[in-house]
Request: fold
Amino acid sequence: MKTFLMGQIAGFSIALALAGATLCFAGQGPGYSFGSPAGKSDPCLGCHAVKGKVPATAFVDPQQFAHTTHARIGCPACHDGVSPNHPNSVKTPRAECRECHADIKAEYDRSIHAGKTSCAGCHNPHRVETPKEISGAQINQMCSGCHDNFRMTAKHSEWLPQAELHLRMLPCITCHTASKSYFISMYIVKGHNGDLFGKQEVAGYQDLLKLAPKGKLVSLIDSNGDGFVSLQELRDFNARSRRTSLHLQGMMTPQTVTHKFEILDSRRNCTFCHASGPTAQQESFVALPLQDGTFRRVPVERGAVLGVLYGAPDFYMMGSTKSSRMNLIGAAIICCGLIMPVGHGFLRFLTRKNRK
Amino acid sequence: MSEHKKVYLQPIPVRIWHWVNAFGIITLTVSGAQIRFPETLHILPSYRAAIQVHNVAGLIVAVSFTLWFFYYAMVRNSLDKLYIPDEEDIKHGIFRQLAYYCFFYFLGRPSPFHAMPESKFNPMQKSAYMAVMFLLMPLVSLTGILLMNVTPLRVFILVWGGIKMIDALHFLLACSLVAFLFTHVYLATLGPTPLAYIKPMFTGWEDLPEHEEEAAQTTLPGYRPVRHYPEYKGVQGEHKGG
Reply:
């Protein structure tokens, strides 16, 4: 047994050296690759990925972990120097996040969160997902761990009309981090227990798989399977979903996600979001759930959320997602009301002598 | 010289209601326009102010509409008589009034209809007000209430097909009300004098020049007395008397 452990530690050390070397290279910028996660964490996951074999706090979901970038560097990269007699009373060493994510740490330290919580307060390093891999609704789950929904709604209600709606339909980071541009992240919600008008919750992989033709979930909305949702495909999905409990929900999400959490006074001005005009709010994605619990973003044709009625029937931002066609119809109706005053008034003026 | 007969046409509750509605609807139009086109309209100081003003004015108009409905339906018991066109209105009244507005008015002929407390509206007015009061106003108020309470009334919004449907309906109904407003204000100036129909909405009393009633009977080609028209009462009286 001892020989086995020694062998493992030696293996870990080599992996760690390799990982360290890779990290030095990785620190230079995004887009780095750590290679395949295969085999890098197997000795640890042999126990830690089995429920009941380790305490609940030490459990690592193998599927979720496999999806993270951390799986590519393997457990020993962060947990260096695990005691040869592990498990025992010796505390397992942990690397500091800043050792790799120094730039993010520096940014975070300038935010209002600094000193309030560490990285692990929001992120679980064994299941960390990029913003692209989660639906809009899930972004707020990280915040609600500390920020009680009820209290936050009450606090925002002091100045924000329909605060509950805003807090439910917007990621906190849209207002509390700065980003130059935004996109609409759409995701599928379903009525609770399949009830057409039940409480809305994010539809999971299994929920949608049942409804997807040929068991291919993406074909539920991207019917021709080209990895792109056209306006017609979106309309077809919405027309079909009217008979089911499924609805498309949208969230205005920042294009660039930072860790500099702040209170931005510009967001207190409603027109920051509500007066973008028809040129904004053009870009959108549909986040479709994957089997491993993450989401895949499928791009949607530009202008989808501005569609008259069926682009995204249940997503509307006053002042900014209005349809130009609807405005024209409204103008035509108002012009009809002017026929009488203008037309009749003109004839009235010409025939004024008859009424003297 | 015309001998003026006065008729008490608009009781105080109706006048109050009318002006509350008038100011309410104008406020709603202005604030609503800013809410929809914030990038071009800056009438109220901020978007939030526009929303708050719109919400308050909307609630006032909705409550005022409800009070009006109960006042006419239950206190005056005259909602149906005043607002629902009867057979005679549909068969002849609407066409006669239309012919007057489109043709005889320009010839200087008097209106075939005179408002009386028990029949305040001409057949065209009745039809228009019926659409406005029983369709446009309740629907615009209901959609407005839904838009004001998106989270608590989510289920109802989904029943209607989503928030975009509610917004589209609210916007188009509001445009229809604005269209009606232009026509309404213009038609109010078509009395014997431009202010003749507007004055009663302030004072309650409308002047009825006697000679106009007589002239109406004799001058309009194809004119037949219609039930609830003032002159029809005379005909009824003659029949009863004879």
In short: Chain A has two domains: 2-122, 133-324. Chain A touches chain B through 51 residues (CB under 8 Å). Strands of chain A lie at 182-191, 200-202, 246-254, 284-289, 295-300.
